[in-house]
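pls design
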């Protein structure tokens, strides 16, 4: 097991460019095996050694993330790391954003343990996309991001969304080289998410509260949620919205535009 996050021994990323289903049913795989470069022996190490190992893993990841950040900046590409629990609505938000937001050309890196389902949904919008399947891994890391960038080769000035594996724990620890992490939750998950997953909310540059159209039917306290989020990240913006109805979605587009105000191809 990985001492950092508990990823399985056979964790390795497979990067795939989805092809249209009607073209012979073939999928062309561009496979990059991405080990975490740390020991996977099933030995109960003293706590001090585990901490040292975790620091080594994260230090290597941070170094690779900085190289990714420099690569993106040189190409005027702005990247956002989209994180959430499974089913919060990340893919639906990206589908709607690609169809409606005209600020820049867009591309997507999709992260899931298995399947090409979300990448195929993005492919249908016409946006360039690659799928990273992590196997037993529970998050993307900077090395997987590097492989995805090499395969995707986004054009200069692209607005790049990285849809991370559905998980509110490990993605908080791993920098990919993004400009900011965007946390998406749905009102069906409860008001106490920031208290249960403080590291993720502390790392967030934006929090989106999705599916507000369901609030009349469930017990979700927006005021308490905002209070809890502010307790771990006092400055984080919180955007309530419904991707389904469109309520509040314009504020997301306004946020993207404001973040890219210094970006010559999105201003």
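designed seq:
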């Amino acid at each position: 097991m990985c001492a950092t996050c508990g990823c399985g021994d056979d964790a390795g990323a497979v990067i795939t460019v989805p092809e249209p289903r009607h073209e012979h049913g073939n999928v062309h795989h561009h496979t990059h095996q991405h080990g975490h470069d740390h020991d996977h022996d099933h030995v109960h190490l003293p706590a001090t050694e585990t901490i040292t190992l975790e620091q080594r893993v994260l230090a290597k990841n941070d170094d690779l993330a900085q190289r990714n950040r420099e690569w993106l900046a040189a190409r005027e590409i702005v990247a956002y790391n989209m994180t959430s629990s499974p089913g919060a609505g990340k893919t639906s938000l990206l589908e709607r954003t690609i169809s409606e937001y005209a600020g820049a050309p867009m591309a997507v890196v999709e992260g899931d343990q298995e399947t090409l389902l979300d990448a195929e949904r993005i492919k249908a919008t016409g946006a360039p996309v690659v799928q990273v399947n992590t196997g037993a891994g529970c998050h993307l890391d900077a090395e997987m991001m590097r492989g995805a960038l090499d395969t995707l080769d986004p054009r200069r000035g692209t607005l790049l969304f990285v849809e991370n594996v559905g998980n509110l724990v490990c993605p908080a620890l791993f920098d990919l080289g993004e400009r900011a992490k965007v946390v998406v939750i749905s009102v069906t998950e409860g008001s106490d998410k920031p208290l249960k997953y403080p590291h993720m909310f502390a790392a967030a540059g934006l929090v989106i509260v999705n599916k507000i159209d369901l609030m009349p039917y469930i017990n979700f306290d927006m005021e308490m949620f905002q209070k809890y989020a502010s307790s771990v990240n006092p400055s984080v913006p919180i955007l309530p919205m419904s991707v389904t109805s469109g309520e509040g979605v314009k504020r997301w587009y306004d946020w993207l535009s404001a973040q890219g105000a210094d970006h010559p191809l999105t201003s």
